[in-house]
Structures are given as structure tokens and as C-alpha cells.
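Contributing: when you submit paired examples, paste them exactly as shown. First protein:
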Amino acid sequence: QLEQAEALYHETLAGRRRALGDLHPGTLTTIGHVAGLYYQQGRWEESLSLIRETWEGYLQVLGPTHRQTEIVFDNLIATMKKAGQSQQQVQAIKMQMAKAKRDMSTQSGRSVYS
């Protein structure tokens, strides 16, 4: 069943990338679903790559304080730890998120989809 789910996710993702673009929230959600599937299978590095793409996309289009961005950020941290990333690497991502929040507070605070 996981193989079928993976095939369907990849098919859906390809269609969304074509129709909506890489940074559309619907596309990013599907990328996150594929990352979650890989996480469940213990495919940490593949999951990490996709969850990072999802977080970076949400950060760009929804902003750092949007609930979905924060949820994916928490998933990114958990995946980094499972993938054996160092504490320094985890800290660097946390600092990147904190900087994005600081930068947003000095700007209008609006996202692409607000």
C-alpha cells in the first residue's frame, strides 16, 4: 500500500508543479505529504530534503509566523534529528527561522497569499 501511495503522491506532485507551480501552497502541501511518507518509512535523508523544500516554500509564500510554516518547521527539526544532523545544523535552522521572524516584524508582514 505504501508503494501505491508513493506513486499517487508523485503523480499528484508532478501535476501540481505543472499546473500551480513549485511555490503554490497546494504543491507545497503535497511535497510535505511525500516527505511524511518517507519519514514513516525511515527514509530520513529523502524526507529531510523534501521537508526542507516545503518549509522554505512556506517561509517564502506564507511567512514565518503562519501556522502551517510553524508546523512544517517543527517537522523539519524532528526530521533533521532523525537524519542524524548535528546540533549545530539544527541550531542554524532555528536561527534562520528566528531571523525570518525578526525580518518580517520590520516589514509589512504580508505574505504572497494574504
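Second protein:
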Amino acid sequence: GTSKEGAKATQVASFEAHLALAQELGLPVNVHSRNAERRTLEILERFGSCGVMHAFKGEARWAADAAKSGRLLFSFPPSTVYKREYQEAVRALPLESLLLETDSPSLAAGGPKERNEPAFIGLAA
């Protein structure tokens, strides 16, 4: 089996290859990072990547620092209405760095057991 560190190294190498390809093609990236937000932002900064951090749940100060480059946007789902970690990041970011997302069928404004629908996007606004 692969060690935890070996698996992380493989994920980083794959992520970096995707970023290099996006850069070569002049395309933005859409990143959903789970439990690795700080490292992800560091790698994106190193590559000078442009794109979106989808459903960002990292530290608010990391998002605010990353947004200063003007290359990254941060999207938040309707569950922002009750998830403190999303709310802190939203407050720390400039309005021009914010995007709303539907992320259906999960991350509904009514809680984890509610099915999300794109029509509910207004609840997060």
C-alpha cells in the first residue's frame, strides 16, 4: 500500500501537472481543496495560477492574503448561512473576490439533510 505521505506527494505532483497544463493553455483552474487549503494556496501562488477556490473552508486570513494577488476568486455555497468557517472567510474577502455557487445537491442553506437546488442560491446572497 501507499503511505499517507506518499499519497500526498502523488496528489501534489498531479495537482502541479494540472496547473502547468492550465498555464500552458492559458486556462483558469477550479480547485476544491479539502484539509489542505494553506498548501494549495501556496502552490497556486508559486505557479501564478488564476482561478476559483470552490467551497473554500480554510482560514479567513489565508483567503484574504491570496485574494490580494487578484488572480483567485473564492466561491461559497448556500450553507454559508449556517457554517461559521465560510462566514469568516466571506467577511475577510473583498466583494470582487466572492462568487456564489449552488453545489447541488449538497451544502444547502437548510442544513446537511436538506437537498440543495440551484434555485436556492438567493439564500446565500
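If you have annotations for the second protein, write them as plain sentences, like these:
The radius of gyration is 15 Å.
The beta strands are 29-31, 51-53, 72-76, 98-100.
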